[in-house]
Predict the structure.
Amino acid sequence: MEIFLIKAFQFLLSLSLIVVLHELGHFIPAKIFKTKVEKFYLFFDVKFSIFKKKIGDTIYGIGWLPLGGYVKIAGMIDESMDLDQMKKDPQPWEFRSKPAWQRLIIMLGGVTVNIILGFLIYMMILFIWGKDVMPYSDMPDGFNASPVAKSIGFRDGDLVLEVDNKELESVVDINRYLFLRNSKRVKVKHTSGKIEVINIPENFGSMLFEAGEIIPLSPRISNTVDSIVKVDQLILQELKQVIKLLLFLKIQFHLGTILQLKSILKKIRLSLQSKEMGTHLSGMSIQGKIHFLEDISSKILN
């Protein structure tokens, strides 16, 4: 319950910030063009307000209905739906008395702030967390190809060099290009060293769908265990869970290796230190876990 309340508060706080900035996009141009702003509200004040205070000609307040906010500008029909003011003669401080270009700026102010805010948020995300890229040179083991991918020319261990004569900034995006873009050709380098251009059929997506395949090319990662270093109950439990998962899914795996591992795990408790993958198994693919367990068994048995 505590976590829910924290998340709800964070949501309302972020929503409030976006609403206030959007309404400021209308409020500031209106003030610059000497247009009277009657109300500036965060959230809607249906029937009553949580808080309100009049400063100058403007009432600033917080409503109780968190579905947005509004700025009530004199001479404009907005969320307040105040039609009585339109029956009177236009006044110099009203919105309807201003030149068309000023009215346009006031109306577009909120949308303009939203666009700028979106760019700023995206820029901050890139500045803080950066962008993940994976050139093919950083994936020496290439990809594992699904049966449908193999049927059109892909092979296990292929390195993706180019898609439609362009090198990918991040080769792990290859599936997105095959699914969502009309890619025609993929240049790959096979494990034999041969470079081949594979033509992608127009109905490749349909072929995958009919075969029940989601990922035609999955990263191939070699997981090398350096040594067995110490006792660790947590890693032992995780290894047992992985073995159970492999058995449950009936994936092709050396039965003798599984039995040997199960027998050993009953007798000893261990933790593993892996140069490339550490001890975190949850992020590996099933095939990666199989290679990982095979490597573990060979190290233990030897």
In short: Residues 136-219 form a domain with the Pdz3 Domain fold (CATH 2.30.42). The longest helix spans residues 2-32.
